[in-house]
Amino acid sequence: HESTFIQSQLPPEELNYGATATRGKQDSFVSASRKGPAKRDYLVVAVLCYANLITFMDWFIVPGILLDIQQYFELSDGATGLLQTVFILCYMLAAPLFGYLGDRYNRKIILGAGIFFWSAVTLGSSFITEWYYWMFFLSRGLVGLGTASYSTIAPTIIADLFQEGKRTTMLSVFYIFIPVGSGLGYVLAAGMAEVTGDWHWAFRITPCMGGLALVLLILLVPHRTQRRTAAHRALSISGTIRVAAEKPGAERSAKTTWCQDVISLAQNWSFVWSSLGLTAMAFVTGALGMWVPLFLYRAQVVQGIVPPCLQESCNSSNSLIFGGITIGTGILGVIAGAEVARRLRKINNKADPLICATSMFTSALCLYLALMVAQTSILSTFVFIAFGELFLSVNWAVVTDILLYVVTPRRQSTALALQILLSHLLGDAGSPYLIGTISNAIQATKAPSFQWSFWSMQYSFTLCAFIGVFGGAFFLLTSFYIEEDRQEAER
Where are the domains of the chain? Predict the structure, then answer.
């Protein structure tokens, strides 16, 4: 979704919104300066993909060993959920700042500084003692800052190295490492905790991998990659002069203020409802990513499958399995969603929102069933969780496509920025903390027991199923307006 935000900031002709004379000039300008991507460019993409992989591995280390961290710092469910909330809030708020800096200053330096910063902070967090839990919270927020610097800038380097067809392919490859890295984060965290008997070691591997990424970045990524940007700048200047000569004041009238764009988007019901649907998706995925391994552990304790974890190192097999599920369902879901949408659009103009609505309703049902069978069958719980995540992943590419054709090209950057902000702020930034807080409130009314520890998490998790239903309803409402809004955008 956020990769599309980067692409949408390119001129409309670059995004293939119709062949124009300017497009022809641009192609000749680029082809004159460069015949095609060199082998070095593919090496640069490989380095950036590797860095993207370890960035998201580091992102999901905490959920992978959440039980150990909770035991070590003696945190309640609410305080534990705040860990991911702090991370995502810092990431969300810092991303626009680094996007601004990346447009104006050397991106290679910013990338290197970001990787070095989050690697150093992650390594330092592994030495924090149990008496300074607040420093651990602070460290996760600082890691979010470093992650934002990479996630907002790396795609623009890829976009500068490749022309339209290849660029889309390379960006798709880059972003497929998000679900892969997320799943490997669980696997790494659980594996290191199990092998070493000390969960702190999970925070010492990704910094080493980050050091390798930094070396490769320095050696292989060019100091400046402005080929495509230079062409755009030249064409933009010539286009402005031409418009001004043909029709005085035309360029000024074409521009609108940010507030006017926001007002216009608020009147675009397809954008509004699909953004709310995306927010519901983010809420559910954020809660699942944080709490599923801990929830499964409590279910196993109630069933007598595993003993209660009373020592520092706890069994992390659930994180290993959940990490594998995240990798598989993420890749399969994104590919399947794009392919199904491509086929159904040929026979139904409302296919995209209907696909999103159906998958959200199905995902909510699967998650609800997973919660209901957790006390009796762990295997069935894993199966339903896998299907729930699969149907959630179906929507990620489709919902972005909806935005791109219901919003005019000159407002797409603003629309995507607002959608990203809304989905993080009301979605995955708050859902881990909210689920933990509800669990705390339920436990506070009962005598402490392993049974109520499980039930409190089960009851609070039910909220995700209902939010998923609301998300499906929002996408269903989108289908009522999408044809009209698409025609308006085309006009």
Answer: 37-234, 268-490
